[in-house]
Amino acid sequence: MASNNISDRLTQYFDSLTRAERQLANVVMENYPVSGLGSITELAEKADVSTPSVARLVQKLGFKGFPEFQAQLRKELAAKISGPIEKHDRWAENAPDTHILNRFTDAVMTNIRKSYHQIDTNVFDRTCELLADQKRSVYVVGGRITHALADYFFLHMQVIRPDVTHIQSISNAWPHYLLDIKKGDVIVVFDVRRYENSTLKLVEMAAAKGAEVVLITDQWISPISKLTNLVFAARISVPSAWDSSIVNMLILETIIARVQEIIWPDTRERMEQLESMFDETKLFRKFT
Fold first, then answer.
1. pLDDT score, position 97
2. Smallest Cα–Cα separation from 56: which of 45, 40, 42?
3. How confident is the prediction for the chain on average, in pLDDT?
4. What is the percentage of the chain residues whose pLDDT exceeds 90?
5. Which residues contact 218 (CB under 8 A, 6 or more apart)?
6. Residue 167 in contact with residue 174, Cβ under 8 Å?
7. What is the 3-state secondary structure (H, E, C) of the chain?
8. With 70 as the cut, is the pLDDT of residue 85 above it?
9. Can you tell me the distance from the alpha carbon of 41 to that of 64, in angstroms, rounded to the nearest whole number?
10. How much is the pLDDT for 9?
């Protein structure tokens, strides 16, 4: 089996599943991995399928039975909610006897390969088309850790096109931003484990106003995913107490590259104006 992660297995086998099994797979992914931790009867009822359908799907995913399936879900849940100390201890216990430069780089390259293998090109293209549509306003928001990614994305998008707003992390200011969100506007959200309830609430309110949601998250997938089909799930585990943002950064830089490519004549004009202002203000030294 290429991956122990149940969500990966569901994605891999989804096209070959029966209608009932697809219903079941969608229910499992709705609040993953918690959604599969009830009894087999409860899961079957929630998906409106038979108990044997649950058993068949579990076996298709490579498990001997429902208890083994749930044991894997509990393992994934523990990984999802663990903090820096637990992550460090787990890595330290299993660390091979090689230099950290090699171990870390190997983990990152694996993360990139597996994450990009799972990206739906239709989702990527649709995301870039929405962001390039200058009739739509764009809003960007991050969390406690991901605000740095949001800052970076906002800075570039603000140069590429007009009408881009960075929603600050202070939640009591969010209603002011929500006032201006219109149907069809785009909100780009960065949310990785331990997912923030305040961010979820903000996006729920924006979606209720008709905003298109783009989610950049991790392999365990933020609850915000229930509000959109435009989801990029990056692998973030590395031999460190901290999660890695490298794949998320790669995804957002690829999006930036494509959006500026789509509307390059307008972007070029904005860049020329910006360079002219830099020259006038002498903010940067020129080596000419």
1. 60
2. 40
3. 88
4. 55
5. 192, 193, 233, 234, 235, 236, 243, 248
6. yes
7. CCCCCHHHHHHHHHHHCCHHHHHHHHHHHHCCCHHHCCCHHHHHHHHCCCHHHHHHHHHHCCCCCHHHHHHHHHHHHHHHHCCHHHHHHHHHHHCCCCCHHHHHHHHHHHHHHHHHHCCCHHHHHHHHHHHHCCCCCEEEECCCCCHHHHHHHHHHHHHHCCCEEECCCCHHHHHHHHCCCCCCCEEEEECCCCCCHHHHHHHHHHHHCCCEEEEEEECCCCHHHHHCCEEEEECCCCCCCCCCCHHHHHHHHHHHHHHHHHCHHHHHHHHHHHHHHHHHHCCCCCCC
8. no
9. 17
10. 86
pLDDT average, residue stretch 72-93? 66
Q: How many residues does the chain have?
A: 288
Q: What are phi and psi of 231, to 5 degrees?
A: -120, 130
Task: Give CA–CA dist 145/243, Å, rounded.
Answer: 10
CB 257 within 8 A of CB 206: no
Helices 66-81, 6-13: inter-axial angle, 10-degree rounding: 120
- pLDDT for 1: 39
